[in-house]
Structure formats: structure tokens, C-alpha cells
Amino acid sequence: MKHIPTATAVALALSLAAAGASAQYTGPSSIPVMTVKALQADGKDDQHAVLRGKIVSSVGDERYLFSDGTGQMKVKIKQKAWPAQKPVDGNTTVEMVGEYDKELIGESHFDVKEIRLP
């Protein structure tokens, strides 16, 4: 009889731990919100930034075209960066946290570490 309350307590603890694992920090950040235009003009290689706008289209192999109204930029988004169980399309406003990958030769892009839905 003592095993039932213990099993229930273990199941409850595991479900609470799993629920906490999907949480994310939503408070203030020292990473600046930037525009595509400003990042392309003044951004430095590996600079951390936040971009707000829309993912316009897929250009293949984890690469997408992003627009924020000031310009467009290619972004690289790995599967783990997408918000879980929340669809994103061309009409969805997103907030992307990541690093600017400035190329001396070739096209620069933004490496997305996390996508948030504001």
C-alpha cells in the first residue's frame, strides 16, 4: 500500500521536471535589438543581436530569407531553434536571437540560436 503514494509522488515530480525543461527566459537582455539595415551596415563578425520581423521564404538547407522592413538578410536556422509546436509562416512576426556571421568574401548571414514569438 505504501508503494502507491510513492509511485504517485515520483510521477508528479517527473511531470513537473519535464514541464520546467521546456520553459524559457523572457526577461530583459543585454543583447541589442537591431534592424537588418543597421546590422549589415555596422555589424561585426560574431556580434550577438536580436532581429524582429518575418521569415519570408525558405532558400534551402536550414537557410531562410528574413525581412524586418528595413532590408532582407539570409538567416540560418537549425531545427532546435524553432519554437516547439508553434507553426511559423510568412505572416508570423518572430524575434530571432543569434550571431551575425560577417563574411569578407561572399554573403553574410545571421546564425539563429533561438526563435521567439512575441
Strand content: 35-45%
CATH topology: OB fold (Dihydrolipoamide Acetyltransferase, E2P)
Give the integer mean of the pLDDT values.
84
Indicate the overall shape.
globular
CATH architecture: Beta Barrel
Oligomeric state, counting identical vs distinct chains: single chain
| Coarse structural class | alpha/beta
Count of folded domains: 1
Radius of gyration: 19 Å
CATH class: Mainly Beta
Tell me the name of the CATH homologous superfamily: Bacterial OB-fold
Element pattern in H and E: HEHEEEEE
**Residue runs with pLDDT of under 50 for 5 or more positions:** 7-21
What proportion of the residues is helical, as a percent range? 10-25%
Largest sheet: 5 strands, mixed, barrel
Number of helices: 2
Neighbour order of strands in the largest sheet: 2-3-4-6-5
Please describe what this structure looks like.
By secondary structure, the protein is of the alpha/beta class. The protein has a single domain, classed as OB fold (Dihydrolipoamide Acetyltransferase, E2P) (Beta Barrel), CATH 2.40.50.200. It is 22% helix and 37% strand. The protein has 2 helices and 6 strands, in the order αβαβββββ. A 5-stranded mixed beta barrel has the order 2-3-4-6-5. Helix 2 links the parallel strand 1 and strand 2. The longest helix is centred in the N-terminal third of the chain and has 19 residues. The chain is globular. It starts with a helix and ends with a strand. About 13% of the residues have low confidence.
Name some characteristics of this structure.
118 residues; alpha/beta
In short:
With 118 residues, this protein is α/β, with parallel strands linked by helices. 22% of the residues lie in helices and 37% in strands. It has a five-stranded mixed barrel.
